[in-house]
Amino acid sequence: MKTNIDSKIGQYFSNVSLKLYSPPARHLVHLYADYVELISLFSNSDFVTASDIADRFKDEGILTKKKEDSEQAEGNDKNEQWINEIFQVLEERSFLYLSDYPFKLYGNSRIQLIPQPDLNNRHKLYIFLLLSSCLYQFGDFEPELTSEFEYVCHQALLKYMPSHAVVKSLGKNSEYSGTAKEKIRLLAKELKVEVNDDFLNKISTQGNQERGLDLIGWIPFDDNVPNHFSILSQCACGKEWYKKLAETRRYENYYNFYCVKPLHALFIPYSLINYQNSDFYQADEISIPTLLFERKRILNYISDTSFFVSLSSKQLVDKCIEYEEDIV
């Protein structure tokens, strides 16, 4: 695995071109804030200014010129205001993440990666989550990023649950072997729940995917009654993460939960907390009741980062920190 990631890193950075492919809608300023952080990361501790970002956005076609001078002047004002909003999000992140934030803000117009000697594992874990939310740029590393994101989420869920809880992986790092049906039955024995064969028999006998359940945590009692608190979790790195909200709910068909339904959770690497409004960005996409673990919440529940040094993705993070490209 190490040789494979080394080879991919060497190939990727020999011809890397940082670009925001398929720009999101302009009101999704938190996603543009991620891109500015990525630019700052690749700037190797150089300042990145609001003016730099405006120039880069023009070069990428995100900002376009108007035909008439009067329209251009009005457009420039709107563009400047929009970029200021992006930098406002970045400034709010510096207050939200505090010492975990690997960037330093100077007013509402400059951002800088903190010096390399000062970057610790928590900073690098933040950068890992940033890269995981930017698969459009790091598609070559999607297998490593998505698999290890699930592992990071496992660590966060383990810490979120009480010490006597049980947390299991069924996704890319599954603790169970066999087909999907076999995995679901093995988990049922541990949960002490009955299986609904009418629904389970509709699953292919050949498939081995987890059917939408990446992580599960539950608080057991020392009896055989399957009446306990449980969390069914999906981990999603894609930009349309909200389409994953309902996937774990099929397990309410597979299992006969006794007297209490499970809680459903979604883990995503995006930074969704709107610090100023005390809500989530893209809250309108959360269409069904879900416990959301986003970038800040994941970091909050990882107290020991020693596991991070063994992840393949750490090599990618370190290379991104080391690498330097022209800002514009």
Task: Please tell me about this protein's structure.
- With 328 residues, this protein is of the alpha+beta class.
- The protein has 2 domains: 19-140; 142-313, Trna Endonuclease, Chain: A, domain 1 (3-Layer(aba) Sandwich).
- Helix content is 40%, strand content 13%.
- It is built from 11 helices and 12 strands.
- It has helices spanning 2-13, 29-41, 50-59, 69-97, 121-132, 142-160, 180-191, 197-200, 251-254, 295-300, 312-322, and strands at 48-49, 103-106, 110-113, 166-169, 194-195, 215-219, 229-235, 255-256, 263-267, 273-274, 279-280, 291-293.
- The strands form 4 sheets. It has a 5-stranded mixed beta sheet. Strands 1-3-2 form a 3-stranded antiparallel beta sheet.
- Helix 1 runs parallel beside helix 11 (312-322), helix 2 crosses helix 4 and helix 5 packs across helix 6 (142-160).
- The two termini are 34 Å apart.
- The mean pLDDT is 92.
Task: Annotate the secondary structure layout.
Blueprint: H1 2-13, H2 29-41, E1 48-49, H3 50-59, H4 69-97, E2 103-106, E3 110-113, H5 121-132, H6 142-160, E4 166-169, H7 180-191, E5 194-195, H8 197-200, E6 215-219, E7 229-235, H9 251-254, E8 255-256, E9 263-267, E10 273-274, E11 279-280, E12 291-293, H10 295-300, H11 312-322
Parallel strand pairs: 7-9, 9-12
Antiparallel strand pairs: 1-3, 2-3, 4-6, 5-8, 6-7, 10-11
